[in-house]
Amino acid sequence: EPEVTQTPSHQVTQMGQEVILRCVPISNHLYFYWYRQILGQKVEFLVSFYNNEISEKSEIFDDQFSVERPDGSNFTLKIRSTKLEDSAMYFCASSEEYNEQFFGPGTRLTVL
Amino acid sequence: DQQVKQNSPSLSVQEGRISILNCDYTNSMFDYFLWYKKYPAEGPTFLISISSIKDKNEDGRFTVFLNKSAKHLSLHIVPSQPGDSAVYFCAASPWNSGNTPLVFGKGTRLSVIA
Fold first, then answer.
1. B101 and A95 in contact by Cβ < 8 A?
2. Which residues of chain B have pLDDT under 50?
3. Alpha helix stretches (DSSP H) within chain B
4. For chain A, what percent of residues have pLDDT higher than 90?
């Protein structure tokens, strides 16, 4: 069964450093998303991406964040200068046009 | 702002009995609702969905009921099995199409006791 994959599973970084989280969505899906879940809180939408551009973004997705689909398979989330409060699980998801979103296993980001 | 609320953080049920997980929403624009299950160290796994034109959707042991006037939905699992023990998230969106951000509740931890 096709699945969304994410790397790395755990990323530890120093405050102020840049991190890139990587995702490989399901191959025939058209829409891609990033969500995050801070420990003990709900899963929150960050950004959606379609046709090589951002479709929607939340207020969390400020200028420190960017997304890219550098090739036909990868979908990345970059945080330019990490803050302590960026520590969270980051989930990538993908979907076809009218169906449910499938989530990856997540990347745990720890900012020290 | 909690647009999607799951007021029970946890629920314990005996194996073989019915599990009922509840979800309330406040945004009347929500038109499409989903339930996800999440095990530790894994991403949310889609379980079942329902659009506002229906009041019930069934898939095997899982049934979702939607009461649009009350802005309430529930997930019934019958019979409950130990493998169902997980955190269950209710999610909602204004429509069923791509590009739609899902708004999640905080989740309910279900424990099915053998």
1. no
2. none
3. none
4. 82
Least CB-CB distance to A31: which of B41, B96, B98? Answer: B98
Per-residue model confidence (pLDDT) at position A96:
87
Burial class (CB in 10 A: 0-12, 13-18, 19+), A11: middle
Q: What is the pLDDT of residue A1?
A: 78
Kindly state the tokens that stand for A82: 């990490």
Instruction: Report the pLDDT value the prediction gives residue B41, as an integer from 0 to 100.
Output: 82
Shortest distance between the Cα of A48 and any Cα of chain B, in A, equals 6
Rounded to whole angstroms, the Cα distance separating B34 from A23 reads 23
Can you give the length of chain A in residues? 112
Question: Quick count: other Cβ atoms within 10 Å of Cβ B98?
Answer: 20
Which pLDDT value is given to residue B112?
A: 98
Distance CA B26, CA A112 (A): 37
Q: Say yes or no for a CB contact (<8 Å) between B43 and A105.
A: yes
For residue B46, give both structure tokens. Answer: 């889609």
A45 contacts in B (CB within 8 Å)?
101-103
Contacts of A58 in chain B (CB under 8 A): 101
Q: Is the pLDDT of residue A88 over 80?
A: yes
3-state secondary structure of B13: strand
Specify the pLDDT at position B1.
Answer: 66
C-alpha distances out from residue B55 to A24, B31, B110, Å: 35, 12, 24
